[in-house]
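User: Design a sequence. Structure:
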């Protein structure tokens, strides 16, 4: 056909590509050291253990694991997830759990259920790009709330809510990654979490809690999820096996009230009928035999030194003037450079030196973040981290030299 544009829906015309997904195409060159993707390290995948688990699943659950499943998910896995959630302080049964084909599907489902064109949602500045894109695809207006070292600034959140209410606008929900936030890596302390819940109760809002990294703790004890503080069923909790086991399984879950869970399941029926049944049985068996918790301990021990290497290499190779708070968990370091440096423009210079990152504007709905960048420390080898920081430091130094002329 000559012109497909006349056939596209208004919504399709407003869809935006993911900057991170596009960057990953560019960084496929094996000579490029990429800190751009949020990728687990493939050396962390428990391949031998999973081989044994797969044989057990096929031997004992072969017929049902290879068949269509229910949209809400395999009951045994939902019970296993609910049991683990209860250990984290979340009051949940299997009826509150919906299995999703990756957490991105859960984020998209939330957008489809709650957002009409022109509705408002509140997100962090910066915030996870996947959440931003999911909600923008439903033509929502996203109002950004600045973060500090303790996560989303709830006082500024309160001001924004009141400002919108004065304009006759009631936001639909607050989207937050409170634990080892992507991209900033910060943790919201419990007192601020309680204030966030209070604000949601006061203004009759939902909270979407995205928690992919909560188990990847390096220097802190267990942190109660927001959902554990939720007495009014205002929080939809989303998490995934992508960061703690394998992204290739495309397996995640949402925990919410029974009413909201039913609504998410009905929405999901039109998307993919059901999540991959085989991987659900595999993961449930992996949990049942106690391997998941052991694996999480192993990957934390594997990633902690990588984070430390990146922090040391930054000190060694980056010119003075940068700010990077040491992340206590997760997979990312958030770096802010000196005034005058635009990391989106600088990316092309970095690529010439065979090193890549994600520029900060990609994570900011108001166009801010121009001096910042996100660096992933989980994927690269130790030597690649050192060399990549050396290359990136040289690029930054060259930019600063030009600014000083």
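Assistant: Done.
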């Amino acid at each position: 056909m000559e012109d497909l544009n006349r056939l596209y829906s208004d919504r399709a015309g407003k869809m935006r590509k993911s900057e991170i997904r596009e960057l990953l195409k560019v960084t496929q060159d094996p000579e490029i050291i990429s800190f751009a993707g949020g990728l687990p390290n493939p050396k962390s995948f428990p391949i031998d253990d999973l081989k044994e688990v797969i044989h057990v699943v096929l031997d004992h659950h072969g017929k049902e694991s290879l068949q269509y499943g229910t949209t809400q998910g395999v009951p045994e896995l939902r019970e296993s997830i609910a049991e683990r959630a209860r250990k984290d302080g979340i009051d949940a049964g299997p009826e509150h759990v919906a299995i999703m084909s990756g957490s991105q599907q859960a984020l998209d489902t939330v957008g489809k259920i709650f957002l009409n064109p022109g509705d408002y949602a509140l997100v962090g500045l910066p915030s996870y790009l996947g959440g931003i894109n999911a909600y923008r695809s439903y033509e929502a207006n996203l109002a950004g709330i600045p973060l500090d070292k303790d996560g989303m600034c709830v006082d500024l959140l309160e001001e924004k809510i009141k400002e919108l209410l004065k304009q006759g606008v009631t936001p639909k929900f607050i989207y937050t990654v409170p634990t080892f936030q992507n991209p900033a890596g910060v943790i919201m302390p419990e007192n601020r979490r309680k204030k966030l819940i209070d604000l949601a109760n006061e203004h009759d809002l939902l909270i979407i809690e995205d928690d992919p990294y909560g188990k990847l703790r390096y220097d802190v004890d267990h942190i109660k999820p927001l959902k554990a503080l939720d007495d009014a069923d205002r929080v939809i909790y989303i998490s995934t096996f992508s960061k703690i086991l394998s992204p290739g399984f495309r397996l995640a879950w949402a925990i919410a009230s029974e009413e909201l869970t039913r609504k998410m399941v009905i929405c999901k029926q039109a998307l993919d009928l059901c999540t991959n049944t085989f991987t659900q049985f595999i993961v449930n068996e992996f949990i049942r035999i106690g391997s998941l918790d052991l694996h999480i301990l192993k990957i934390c021990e594997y990633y902690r030194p990588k984070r430390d290497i990146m922090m040391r290499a930054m000190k060694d190779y980056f010119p003075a003037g940068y700010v990077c708070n040491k992340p206590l968990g997760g997979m990312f370091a958030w770096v802010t450079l000196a005034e005058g440096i635009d990391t989106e423009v600088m990316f092309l210079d970095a690529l010439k030196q065979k090193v890549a990152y994600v520029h900060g504007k990609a994570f900011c709905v108001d166009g801010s973040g121009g001096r910042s960048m996100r660096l992933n420390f989980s994927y690269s080898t130790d030597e690649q981290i050192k060399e990549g920081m050396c290359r990136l430091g040289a690029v930054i130094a060259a930019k600063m030299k030009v600014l000083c002329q």
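The first strand starts at residue 33 and ends at 34. The CA atoms of residues 33 and 355 lie 5 Å apart.
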